Amino acid sequence: MTKSSRPVVNGSGPHKPTVSGASWARTIVDISVPLVKSGILAAWIMVFAVTLRELSMAILLYVPGTETLPVAIYSFIDNGTFEIGAAASVVLVSGRYLDEIGRDKNKTVRLFGYGHTTDYLPLDKKDAPTFSTARKAAEKAFRMANLTPRDLHGADVHDCFSITEIVAYEILGLAELGKGVDLVKSGATTLPAVRPEKSNAPFQIPVNAGGGLIGDGHPVGATGVRQVFEAYQQLSEQAGARQIENAKRFLTFNMGGSLTTSVAMLWGRD
Fold first, then answer.
1. 245 and 154: one domain?
2. Three-class SS of residue 264?
């Protein structure tokens, strides 16, 4: 039996191949290129992204006579036939401030109660369709305001999908679990002014009288503010054709991330 061993090579890193007799070309291919390959790829991706952005901006520039889809969309918006800009704001003040400016509190819309909860983000970690965490937000608001769902005269809920509004009915206590569809069929949530026939439901509560997200759009992050403004208009009798008659108690319910974050607020006037 014979024993053999590899010769010891002095040197490290890129110099190893040359110490072993490899050429500089082989050193670059085997060592240097793999070391910088990721950096080259990242730089190429960045160049591509910047180029694509500039190209996209160039495509969107309006050029008379062109009929490409981006230009057609630009022209449609530029002609004022489609409103894409909107804004909403809310100013909350204390009762003490109202006293200082001499404002009659009885004629001012007030926040009676609110509740905020946060659930897991993945839907499979939520107890759908019960959504008990979202229910706690509503329970907190009702408890703080000392009100019940039957005390409400109207509501505005986040209806990113049709089923979302129905689930919200059940979360807010407007309907029992599994009975949200029946509430819709009863006509109780429809504005009486546009209801074809009188509702036979035990109580009436028009929901999303302004059309919800279809009627007002869905600027993510601003929908909750818009809901509060809707509550103010309803309670101050400035809602026009969508006005709920004699509205004194109004609920807003907004959520995000498939009921990950839920906010319920109860507004009213005396």
1. yes
2. strand
The full 3-state SS of 143-198, as one line of letters, equals HHHCCCHHHCCEEEECCCCHHHHHHHHHHCCCCCCCCHHHHHHHCCCCCHHHCCCC
CA–CA separation, 67 vs 63, rounded Å? 9
List the CATH number of the domain containing 121: 3.40.47.10
Q: Is 27 helix (H, G, I), strand (E, B) or coil?
A: helix
**Predicted pLDDT at 182:** 93
pLDDT tens column, 140-183:
999 999 999 999 999 999 998 889 999 999 999 999 999 999 99
Are 256 and 146 in a shared domain? yes
| Cα 239 from Cα 228, distance rounded (Å) | 13
Domain containing residue 101: 95-268
Taking the C-alpha atoms of residue 239 and residue 234, their distance in angstroms, rounded to an integer, is 5
Rounded Cα distance, 198 and 102, in Å: 43
How far is it, in rounded angstroms, from Cα 132 to Cα 126? 8
Residues in the chain: 270
Q: How confident is residue 216, by pLDDT bands cut at 50, 70 and 90? A: confident
Structural domain total, the chain: 2
Among candidate residues 177, 172, 178, the one with its CA nearest the CA of residue 255: 172
